[in-house]
Amino acid sequence: MAAKSSDEIAFLEQLGLRVRRARGRAGLTRRRLAERSGVSERYLAQLESGGGNGSILLIRRVAAALGTELLDLIGQLVDVDRGGRIALVGVRGAGKSTLGARLATRLELPFFELSAEIEREMGEPLASVLARGEQQAYRDCERQVLTRLIDGNARCVLAVGGSVVLEPQTWQLLRSRALTVWLKAAPEDLIARVTAQNDLRPLQGREHPLVELRALLAQRERLYLLADFTVDTSASDEDRCLELLLAAAGHPGAADDVALLP
Predict the structure, then answer these.
(1) What does the alpha-carbon distance between residue 227 and residue 233 come to, in Å, rounded to a whole number?
(2) Residues of the chain with CATH 3.40.50.300
(3) Residue range 228-249, pLDDT digits in tens
(4) Are the beta carbons of 93 and 164 closer than 8 angstroms?
């Protein structure tokens, strides 16, 4: 390409600065970022020093010629076929397993519980992994398994743990390649459901579990609301929630009041 203008040199320097700052906020070394992104350390060093690949400048020139912004061309790109994948997100007790299985049956699609797939990949229960403090190993595996499931299934139903929203890269991956639905529920109902299932993991060692759960949901709400739809499993019974999910998925003959979903 032609020699870079002073404006383009400044643009690449600013881009490099933003990458460095983003890496700092993520708490990643350049080597760790290279491993997670599949980009060489050498290229990252070049990018962060303001010597990024000229391809981004070519796209910037096209945007300028079109009279639009670079972000309009490359920002928030999504999989055009993402609607074939439906991902249910929510904390334990929200109804992901029950509604996910029923939704998959109605749509005649495979159903995957991400937590079970991660355990299969890691070869041990997640509780054991997390008890050893291997949170990063779990997060890396979560992203890898999710990518594999998405790449291997153009149409499917996924049940995804609520903490996925705390990993920006993984949450963005899911939202860009699947139709996402936040299954929300009142904290009191969540605790009652897991207790009825004899699944006391969310309660063990908690002096005030209800208070802590309310605080957790409040902290995550803005992230959950980035999902395409929200279904309140406390406000509707199971059959009604299923109809709302079918409507969100565009299933013929489903409830026609999907507009009720936030």
Answers:
(1) 16
(2) 82-260
(3) 999 999 999 999 999 999 988 8
(4) no
